[in-house]
Design goal:
The complex is a heterodimer of chains A (158) and B (168). With 158 residues, chain A is mainly α. Helix content of chain A is 82%, strand content 0%. Chain A has seven helices and no strands. The longest helix of chain A is centred in the first third of the chain and has 29 residues. The two termini of chain A are 31 Å apart. The chains are: A mainly alpha (158), B mainly alpha (168).
């Protein structure tokens, strides 16, 4: 049976991982900048949709009309954050994987993506979603993404 | 004032009991860093939505001034969080920050982004043509949006470079 340690070792020995690990520190800093940029894009979009779902901004504007372009921004941010995150991880998988806060972030990330795809995105496309459903989607979504931001920032300190 | 004098001044701030307590706290320091990042996402993130609307890239069916007015208080609340947490982070590691070339550049880009926003609010946003929904805003508004996007991006890049570029 293949253990997690074997998988991490395999990831570490990929040629892309080796190239990233041996690259200049500024390449790593560049990946971090892209990771933050992706997070800022996705969180801004989720926050905007949340504020509209709660009726706190632009209540007179039709929800599906607002959501269309914003959801595309969230998807773009998600792809950017995920791609840059994978880049950082594969460069030093052993360093990250065994940190509890990293594992917590991963679990929270899976939950956040599930909440986004199954709840928030669907609710945001409806002309008049049920208020209870809207508020629950907003609460779960923001809690998960803010938690991911906090956990992500902590990785470097533990 | 020489760089050494700045570093001495910053060191004295960092060495105050509160600065030392912050820097050495295993909980407070990372939490403040986390809140700084979340504040950034709220403030600059929502501002980016306004910038992208000014460029005509999203929310084109909503008048630009409606987007601006709706998001402004939330963005400003995010900026309050960013500045408070940023001030605390400076208190805890002032000497490190002052020594890094990335830090004064970050402050410079914040000042330029602020000046751009002030010019936009006081001069450009007062123009009646901005009210038109579904119509691309005038060139001056698009330029202000593009400048805001670029300047705040530069702020983020400089902020992330601080631990990597430690001295001149």
């Amino acid at each position: 049976m293949t253990s997690i340690a074997d998988v991490l070792s395999d990831i570490e020995h990929l040629s892309l991982s080796q190239a990233l690990a041996k690259s200049d520190h500024l390449v790593g800093a560049g990946l971090q900048v892209l990771h933050i940029a992706g997070f800022v894009m996705l969180l801004a979009g989720v926050l905007f949709i949340s504020l509209r779902l709660l009726g706190w901004v632009l209540p007179e504007q039709p929800l599906p009309l607002l959501s269309r372009s914003i959801l595309r921004l969230v998807s773009a941010g998600l792809v950017l954050a995920l791609a840059s995150g994978i880049g950082m991880f594969i460069a030093s998988p052993q360093l990250y994987f065994y940190k509890p806060v990293f594992q917590f972030k991963l679990v929270l990330f899976v939950a956040a993506v599930a909440v986004h795809l199954l709840l928030l995105r669907r609710v945001a496309r409806q002309p008049a979603p049920r208020p209870v459903l809207a508020r629950a989607s907003v609460a779960l979504s923001l809690l998960a993404w803010f938690g991911i931001g906090m956990a992500g920032r902590m990785i470097g300190f533990v | 004032m020489s760089l050494d004098a700045w570093v001495d001044w910053a060191q004295s701030i960092q060495d105050t009991p509160f600065g030392t307590a912050l820097a050495e706290s295993p909980v407070a320091f990372p939490v403040i860093e986390g809140l700084h990042l979340i504040g950034l996402s709220i403030s600059v993130g929502l501002l980016f939505l306004v910038d992208l609307r000014l460029l005509g890239w999203l929310l084109v069916d909503v008048p630009a001034t409606r987007v601006l007015r709706a998001l402004r208080p939330w963005s400003l609340a995010g900026f309050a969080l960013v500045f408070v947490t940023g001030g605390l982070l400076f208190w805890a590691e002032a000497a490190t920050l002052v020594a890094s070339p990335a830090f004064p550049f970050k402050l410079l880009f914040i000042a330029l982004a602020g000046a751009n926003a002030a010019y936009f609010e006081v001069v450009i946003a007062r123009r009646p043509s901005l009210e038109l929904g579904g119509v691309a805003p005038p060139r001056a508004a698009r330029a202000a949006g593009a400048a805001s996007l670029l300047l705040w991006s530069a702020v983020i890049v400089c902020g992330r470079l601080i631990p990597y570029v430690t001295h001149w």
